[in-house]
Amino acid sequence: MPKGSQLSQLKSALSHAGVTKPQQGSKRKRSKKEDVDKERRAAKLREIQQKMNLFDVQVTKVKHGVGGRKIKGAVGRPAQSKQAGIQQRTKTLLKEHQDKDRSGGIFDRRFGENDPTMTPEERMLERFTRERQRESKGAWFNLEEEDELTHYGQSLSKLDDYDNIGLGLDNGDEEDAGQIDSRTVQKVHFGGFESDEDDDEEGPERKKTKPEVMAEVIAKSKEHKYLRQMQQEKDEDLRHQLDQDLESMRSLLYTVDTERPADEAKLNAAVEAPNVQDREYDKAVRELAFEQRAKPKDRTKTEEELALEEKQALERAERKRQRRMQGEDTDSESENGRRKRLRQIGGDDLEDDFYGEDGFGPGLQEQADEPDEGEDGGSGGEGEDGEEGLEGEDEEEDSEEDGADAESEAEDSGSAEGDDNELVQKRKGKTGKPNAGKELPYTFPCPESYEEFLDILEDVEGEDVPTVVHRIRTFHHPSLAEDNKFKLQRLTGVLIDYILHIMTPPSPRFNLLSALIPHLFALSKTYPTAAAQHFVEKLVLMQKNLRLGLSRGATKPDVKTWPSLPELMLLRTAGLIWSASDLNHPVIGPARLLMASYLGLCRVRDLCDICSGLFICTLWLQFEDYSKRFVPEVVTFLANTLLHLSPHKITDVASLPGSFPSPDFGMRSELRLDTREARKLSFGTADLPAILLGTRDEQMKVDLLGTCLALLERFADQYKSLDGFLELYSPVQFIFAQLDMNRLPGMLRDRVATISSVLSKLLKFSKQQRVPLSLQMHKPIPIPSYVPKFEERSSNYLRNRDPDHERNEAAKLRRQVKQEKKGAIRELRKDARFLAAVKQKEQQEKDRVYNERLKKAHTSIEPERAEEKAMLREKAKEKRRAGRR
User: Fold this and answer.
1) Do 474 and 537 fall into the same domain?
2) What is the pLDDT of residues 564-593, one digit of tens each?
3) Nearest-CA neighbor of 124 among 136, 108, 133, 111?
């Protein structure tokens, strides 16, 4: 480009491009060539404009230029690139913004496609019918179809003008020559007015309606389907006949000729011998083919249906039992359902027909009709876990509490249990010993209270009580009557009272308790709210008894503080029925507090108290098997029990390590083992009922001491993960070290040595896990340095040429990622600015339209408002004038 001013540069460029030419006269006509030259001229002008616009060129000065080398990006045109980016965003981003809230798609509008009630055959038939209807509608005015334009059912294209018009031109009979036939006179002339109904059939067919077309299509479809079925049945019959005739055909193929010689017959028999196995195989295949297949079973019955069937079975069995008691015949019944009367015994009757046909009397024969124990639920046992009550359901909390009012007023549970025993003894005194041979009824009323339940069990053996409970639950299933659920809720409290009764000394029945627990478990799961209320009532009563005993004096021997055998069994039953691992539970929570109160507040006075405490410790072990919560009262009681029973060298309380309380230390010397007798004994399982009944001997002490050692070992294994295990079991280890091993029995001595070694290892591991506290570890803070940093390679070219190839490639990739990231951020910002500008324009357009509407509204209202103001002014003037007058 030549130097000089911009105007001179523009003139030089225009003349060099040949754009400037001398002007000619305006009268000359324009040619097509001039139009093409005009377009070329405009293109050259645009090119010159771009070259002359120095503001659209951005040049980056190269620091070290090399001749002939072109550097990418040295010269750029930001305005053009910006315009290109705007155009690209207009094509893509703007279209996405405009279609953002739109929704489109393909809709399947075929008939019956979205109807799940139609089968594929029905859909295809309906589509075919509609397609034929559309074709028939479009063919009404189609003149190309010859069959459509008819006259009396004949095509007009094939109809001659002089055929069948009655002139008789082609008739060969001379008699009728030149005469019009009778058919023409009847149909065409006036004689056609008197035609009968048969004439309508020969006329043109009328167009069928849509219901007629549909009915015809459906009828044809059904006809084809019926024909296919008939053909399949014929084929099946034919195949079956061929299968039956196969054996006869085989016999024809292998028939032995009797006229042949004997040697030839023998030869044929030897040849046919291997075919016998084939025939047997074919016979077996046919038998398997025609074998009767398994039939579908009956559906699974619901819980309500099963309960109703069991109730009806019990009612039928009870009716049969009542008839047997009355001497009626329960087996022989007439065909119409009436019972036959017993035959009258005559004076000559020898009673030779006493036994029936099978050789058994009526009483023995009736046993077969009696429902077996599996049908009724069995005669009690631990297998009966309640078939209809395992699914718990929430019930209302306002259940009646008739059975608990009697015991809530009592001061302790022992007096209530004594009253129950006296009540049972009085009832037995009236009736005597129950008849062992008497048959057990099948239906019982649901007891409303504990006394009614005892009346029901008055003549029932102990092993039949679970059967009675099961029949009561079956006969009063909740689905059979509306108020049955309330009766079963009250039955839960009755069973709890009965469990306390059967566990009362001197003859507790543990087997019966194990048989009744499944029924109580099923009722508690079915009605958890009512069952929890019954259990909590008993626990509250036990807590009142404990508080009353402590107020009278915990060390007095005649005061009852520790729980008795029925109360211990109640706590054990609660742990079996309810979940003991929950943090908060309406039954187990109060039971935990009560057991901890027993261990922490009650004082040890004799072996019976130690036995109750050890049983409570065993319950704690079962309760906390999963949750492993720490109970300090347990370890304290076990340590004190070890001090009470075992011989040791500790003389006073001050020499005891740790901080656990030992208020009864040294006060009960009679509880300690007698070393002379104990050396000959070996410990076993403690007899809980015997100890609670007051049995005192050295064997009992040895058994209790062995139980205490086992519990200490179990709790040590359970609490070994606690942070305070070292402080918890260090005093116990000290007591083990102070025991007099020579005065203990041999088995206990080995047991103590084993537990002591285990505790030593656990305490050692617990001590090793403790680390002294230290400050937080962090990286040291360096001292600030003001020495300048010198680089051996100051050139970027050398810095980017690492001799390590992998490290150099990794650095190159990092640089590319950084550049791409910066470019992506830059493009996202441009997209955001573009969208913001588009949204701003849209908002401006909306504001403009809104303002125009508002202006139009104001324009339409202004004349009316002006008229209204003028009218008001006139009225005001009139008022003023009227006032002057």
Assistant:
1) yes
2) 999 999 999 999 999 888 888 999 999 999
3) 111
Is the Cβ–Cβ distance between 563 and 598 less than 8 Å?
yes
User: Which residue type is seen at 419?
Assistant: D
In which domain, by residue range, is 229 found? 208-251
Both 549 and 626 in a single domain? no
pLDDT digits (tens, 9 = 90+) for 828-877: 999 999 999 999 999 999 999 999 999 999 999 999 999 999 999 999 99
Answer yes or no: are the C-beta atoms of 662 and 641 closer than 8 Å. no
What is the DSSP track for 511-558?
Answer: HHHHHHHHHHHHHHHHSHHHHHHHHHHHHHHHHHHHHHHHHH-TT-TT
What are 696-722's pLDDT values in tens digits? 778 888 888 888 999 999 999 999 988
Residue 83 and residue 69: Cα distance in Å, rounded? 29
Asked, as a colleague might, if the bond just before 506 is cis with ω within 30 of 0, I would say yes
Report the 10 Å Cβ neighbour count for 338. 8
Q: Give the residue from 234, 251, 268 where a domain finishes.
A: 251
Alpha carbons 440 and 432: distance in angstroms, whole number? 17
What SS3 class is residue 361? Answer: coil
Any domain includes 511: yes
Q: Are 616 and 752 in a shared domain? A: yes
318 is a domain residue = no
Q: Per-residue confidence at 742, pLDDT binned at 50, 70, 90?
A: confident
- How many domains, the chain? 5
Q: What residues contact residue 273 under an 8 Å CB cut-off, 6+ apart?
A: none
Dump pLDDT digits (tens) for 187-212: 555 554 444 444 444 455 677 888 88
Alpha-carbon distances, residue 561 vs 267, 300, 569, 642 (angstroms): 107, 54, 16, 21
Whole-number pLDDT of residue 853: 93
Write the CA distances from 532 to 390, 478, 548, 590, 786, integer angstroms: 16, 19, 24, 11, 79
Distance CA 530, CA 396 (A): 8
Strands (E), 721-813: none
**Amino acid letter at 298?**
D
Q: Which two tokens stand for residue 461?
A: 């053996």
Q: Which candidate, 650, 576, 645, places its Cα nearest to that of 613?
A: 645
HSE-up of residue 864 (Cα within 13 Å, Cβ side): 5
What is the separation, in whole angstroms, between the first and last Cα of the chain? Answer: 98
572 and 658 in a common domain: no
Range 773-796 average pLDDT:
73
